[in-house]
Amino acid sequence: MQATSPWAAPVDDNGARHLIAGTRLPDISLPATRGADVNLTRYQERAIVFVYPMTGTPGVANPPGWDIIPGAHGSTPEAEGFRDAYAELELMGYEVFGLSAQSSEDQHAFAVRTGIPYLLLSDEAFAFADALDLPRFSTGGATYLKRLTMIVRNGIIYRVIYPVYEPAEHARELVKSLTPTPAL
């Protein structure tokens, strides 16, 4: 699917080609927006982990060059899309986690401001990202994770979506792809 956003579209740079089905998530605990840390490798259910660069803060300018960095824009609409699809994904047996290198404090403020019902995980030290060699980009002296989604079960990846072309539509498209086709 081609991006229709006015912002620079992401490019498939093969930055996630090594994240293949059967890859185990790293045994790393990450701070979550509602208290206790979460270790995704020990999460013994099906989960969708969407990785995003950063959510903006009202009144705070985006980092330098954000508008021209392919795939940088769209984290807030993507997170809101997962918020809106959350109940349906839960009924399908999936838990949702958002993951970025933003601080827990920034993530918590965003979750409260936008009514996010699922956990946001902070990989501020890039421990999880380094262990999986997640793709990233830099601007303004800071490093950000590139947008991708991992579908996991029992701490093992079984599908990766990279790049994510339409962040605002991503959750809805994912629900469609996970919904079984009725037998004829």
Polypeptide structure, described:
The structure is a single chain. The protein is an alpha/beta fold and 184 residues long. It has a single domain, classed as Glutaredoxin, CATH 3.40.30. It contains four helices and nine strands, in the order βββαβαβαββββα. Strand 3, helix 1 and strand 4 (94-100) form a beta-alpha-beta unit. It starts with 28 loop residues before the first strand and ends in a 6-residue tail after the last helix. The relative contact order is 0.27.
For the record, the count of structural domains works out to 1
Overall spatial form: globular
- Give the helix proportion (percent range): 25-40%
* Mean pLDDT rating: 93
Per DSSP E runs of 2 or more residues, the count of β-strands stands at 9
Percentage of residues in DSSP E strands: 25-35%
The SSE order reads EEEHEHEHEEEEH
Q: What is the H level of CATH, i.e. the homologous superfamily?
A: Glutaredoxin
Low-pLDDT regions: none
Cα-to-Cα separation, first versus last residue: 28 Å
Q: What would you call the structural class?
A: alpha/beta
- Helical stretch tally: 4
CATH topology: Glutaredoxin
| Largest sheet entry | 5 strands, mixed
In spatial order, strands of the major sheet run 5-4-3-8-9
